[in-house]
Every structure is written in C-alpha cells, then in structure tokens.
Predict the 3D structure of the following.
Amino acid sequence: MLTKEDEKFLELYSDSIYEKPSVTVDAVIFRLFDKPQENYRKLPEKKLQVYLTKRQFLPYKDKYSIVGTFIDLNFELNQSMQYCVSQKVNLKNNYYYEQLFTFGNKDRDPRSRVISISYMLLTNQSTQVEGGEWFDVDLVDVSTNKKQIKGGYVLEKKYELNLTSETTTLKNQIFIKITKNGIEEQKNIELLASDLAFDHARIIFYALERLKNKLEYTDIIFNLLPEKFTLTELKNSYEVILREKLLDANFRRKTAKLVMPTSDYETGKGHRTSQLFEHNNLWNLDID
C-alpha cells in the first residue's frame, strides 16, 4: 500500500527527464514433427522445428522472423505475448511457455533502441497455427577452441544454424565465447551472419540452449509430445534435441519416473507393436 507521503510524491513526479526505449515481446515457437521415411518399414524421422513468419513491413521487409510485437502498456508481459501469438499466428492454447531472456543490445534494431523480452513456447504436432511456416532446425558445431588462462579458461565455439522449410533455407552463423575465471563466468553470443530479421537467429539459438539444458532436470519434453507415445518415440525426441545418441540403459534409467505404461498399443509403424506410455505428472513427488 502506498503511504500518503508516497501519493504526494507521485503527484509531483515526472519521468520526462529519462530516455525511454521501445519494448517488444518475441516468441520462439518449437515443435517436434514426424517426417515419414521413404521406406515404410522405418519409423518416421523426428525433427525439431521452429515457426517463422515473413515480415510485411520495413525494416527487413520479406525477411523471416520469430513472432513478436511491441508491448501494450495495459497488459502484463505474459499477456502481451499471449495476445501476440493468438492474433498473429492463431496460437491460442495447447502450448507451454516460459520467459527466455532479455535482449537489449543497442544496435539490435535499426529503428531505435528496442528491448526484446523473449519467450520460448512449446507445442506438439497436432496444434494448428497459420500465417507462417515451420522450419527444420539444424544446429551444427563448426569449430571449438579452448585455451587455459590464469585461474580458468577461454572457450570459443562457432555454430551454423540452418533453418529449412519445404521451399527455403535460412543460414546463420553464431560465435560463442565463454570466459571462466575462478567462480566467475562470462558468456557472449555474437551473430556473425544471418538470413533472419534483426537478431532473431541469436534468440533462437538461446532458446535451443535453454531447451537442451532443461531436458537434464525437468519434464519439459512432454510439452512437445502427444498425450500417448512409445518409449522409442520419447528416446528419439531426446536425441533430436540433445543432438546425440543415448544408450538404452541410460535412457531407461533417466526416464523411469517420468512415464507410466498404458493399456494401449501402437500398431502399423514399421510392422511393430509397441506399448504406449504417458507422462507421469507426479514424477518428482516422493510418494510411497
């Protein structure tokens, strides 16, 4: 509650002496998609995809970008993001979201100083969106260089982030520098080249890192899956996001508490019958 002294102060207060940036909300929308194989005996290939729209106005007219808008001062940030994806791509429900990061480099937008409050959204293959295109995400490690310094190290990595739809391939180059000195760590993500508008390739890369890291200690992956799934499908989903193969024994141990068997079975894929599982929402509760 404001005191009478606070209220009196606010009557005289003016923020006109301060410069004001513009603020946007931007959404990185991911899903996992099953791509049929030419050999019908093989299971569909899983692909991580991101949803992009083509800009209709300058700057970067006709360039692809993640979904975003300038905030409405009458809305909370989350509400601005939800309204944005609802109006621009008709994504109104059936998605998970979390605030990702604040991007505020002074030269990230040629129009003015624009600060982006970014979000990561996860949905599944059954969710319908419109107004843009789904792009396969392919993140490639190009080079790694690590050198020791007094009290720590400097790690430099270069990546290629290739985004591919049925008609278009967008190429992006990203440079990461991590300086570790004692308990202090500094990380810088630099965009070397990009076919996307603004610094949106950098935002997508940051979201990819967040998603990958959260697989290690949360159940976030189930926001990308259908309600029922096979263990093979779950394992393939982990491998696509982690960009590495998992040993069956380690995978079973890692996911044992996260899933529950159902009485249903999947047939017609690769001529194999597989039991279906579902997410165990109580996986992290100690219930005997």
